[in-house]
Amino acid sequence: MILAKVTGHVVATQKCDALRGSNLLLITALDDDQQTMPDRTWVAVDSVGAGMGDVVLAENYFALNKEQYKAMSVVAIVEKVFRDVRE
Amino acid sequence: MILAKVTGHVVATQKCDALRGSNLLLITALDDDQQTMPDRTWVAVDSVGAGMGDVVLAENYFALNKEQYKAMSVVAIVEKVFRDVRE
Amino acid sequence: MILAKVTGHVVATQKCDALRGSNLLLITALDDDQQTMPDRTWVAVDSVGAGMGDVVLAENYFALNKEQYKAMSVVAIVEKVFRDVRE
Amino acid sequence: MILAKVTGHVVATQKCDALRGSNLLLITALDDDQQTMPDRTWVAVDSVGAGMGDVVLAENYFALNKEQYKAMSVVAIVEKVFRDVRE
Amino acid sequence: MILAKVTGHVVATQKCDALRGSNLLLITALDDDQQTMPDRTWVAVDSVGAGMGDVVLAENYFALNKEQYKAMSVVAIVEKVFRDVRE
């Protein structure tokens, strides 16, 4: 999973059946300083009610539920990131 | 999923059975300014009737439907992209 | 799927059962001008009878057939590529 | 699988059901000298009780158990790495 | 699949059940001149009895056998690589 920030959304009326009703979020990967990285943006299906500016966990290939395969998804909203590379 | 533009198509008569009847589109990934990126082009199966120049969503590995595994596919035609990295 | 050129082959007698009888091709990814890119070479199982110098479609993870999972495969021989990024 | 170091963890209360109860670790990929690489950090589910500073093996897509699909996971704690590129 | 050289191995006593009894090899991807590339090293499960210095085929996600999902694996030992990009 990657740490990313919700940076927008996408409107698409003509889409395959599996995406109907899905909220399509633009998410941009974060660097080590929690800043968005240039040209590292994906579109992910929201599954947790994430909003603009939220830091989220996104799974490139959502395989967490065998009965419910999905496209790239936002799977959690992140409250805090503890990081220390020196240890 | 990635944001991409349809930049061409591919003709291939000799192909594996699973690809027969498929429309094979050239899609090129878009950067943060919605411009096509150099050397970031893939071939994707069309599943939504996308045409030349359309901005589309493409899934690298199409796992949206358990009964219908497919190669990389165009899964939606994008009408609008709302993006704001400052938030 | 990626556009690639068949640039060689690999001989391997000691291999896992699933690869027995497979033709192992070296394929090199093509850039926007259809030239092979440096250090972008993979080994793919041939499933369409591709030969040296052929331009092919290769699927990184061959998921086209649910009953017949395979390693990276050449899935089509390309005759023509139509490409126009200006549109 | 990649060699990585546990460099932190993530707190996320709002998450999809499949992640409930999971320990979410920040892991940073190691270079050839076993140093953490900049901007190569992922979030992985811990399955072996790894702690801060541990060198671990992480599987990008955890497919080791057919009945138990999971997101990116830490699958082993590494005690020693023997490496010699000259041979 | 990628061409890689066995450049070491990893000792890990604390690991998930699916990895028990597995031989964990360090493999480093080869460039066009069959030289190991910097910072392109992975850990793969050996399934063919590969040894230090062997050139091998490694599958990033081993999907060759539906009943036997595995982590990244060494699936063949390479004897000869024939390569000609000029054709």
Would you give an account of this structure?
Five copies of one chain form a homopentamer. The first copy, chain A, is an all-beta fold and 87 residues long. Chain A has a single domain (2-77), classed as Beta Barrel (OB fold (Dihydrolipoamide Acetyltransferase, E2P)), CATH 2.40.50.220. Chain A has no helices and seven strands. The first copy, chain A, has strands spanning 2-11, 14-15, 24-30, 36-46, 55-59, 73-77, 80-83. Chain A has a five-stranded mixed beta barrel. Chain A is elongated and about 50 Å long. Chain A starts with a strand and ends with a strand. The relative contact order of chain A is 0.28. Residues 62-68 of chain A have low confidence and may be disordered. Chains A and B meet through β1, β2, β3 and β4 of A and β6 and β7 of B.
In short:
Chains A, B, C, D, E: This is Carboxysome shell and ethanolamine utilization microcompartment protein CcmK/EutM. The structure is a homopentamer of 87-residue chains. The first copy, chain A, has 87 residues and is mainly beta.
